[in-house]
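Hi, here's the filled form for the chain we discussed.

Project: internal
Contact: R.S.
Residues: 232
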Amino acid sequence: MNNPSLDLQIQTLPSNPGVYQYYDKDGKILYVGKAKNLKKRVASYFNKIHDTAKTNVLVKKIVTIKHIVVTSEQDALLLENNLIKKLQPRYNVLLRDDKTYPWICIKKEPFPRIFPTRRMVKDGSEYFGPYTNFKVVNTILDLIKELYPLRTCNYDLSPSNINSGKFKVCLEYHIGNCKGGCEGYESAENYQSHVNVIREILKGNFKESLKDFKVKMLQFASNMEFEEAQKT
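And the returned structure, exactly as it came back:
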């Protein structure tokens, strides 16, 4: 690195989770990013040649590095998302690939669906996250669905539609993944009670379902270890 000022800025960065911001010589913001380890992540920009020309150009323009320390990688994700939306840094736009992180949505509807998404729709639905990647999201949802069968169809399960016999149960019902709310085999109240517990799980409140959830997590871990053993 040829810039002693930048070198000093990097040396004084903490090794905590946080958000970093790059500025050019005119004090204009170039890029916002998040890191589990601020010092390690920022230093990585300057000690290698990058795969894309745009990233190499970005690095050459950086004059000032600012940072905000947070308590967790999750907080860093949230802060990064908010700052990108607010500041619209040029290189976040130019380098945007998968910069929108996944959330888990509890849809506002009768017999709410619960699914992963990158889009937040302001229709009263609830969103939990963001998460680091879809693998994490899908693992969480797989665990939840093992405990609480949820519907995956997009039918309008209003009381009038159910009472009129508009829908028929599908394969998901027959293989035990759904309890058939579409034909009235499961009450809206019973389904909603499961959704209420899932909401608490997603908030990190495990009291009601901790025992069952722990059992499922151990089963999943055991299965994953077995699969890994088979590969070797």
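Let me know if anything looks off before we file it.
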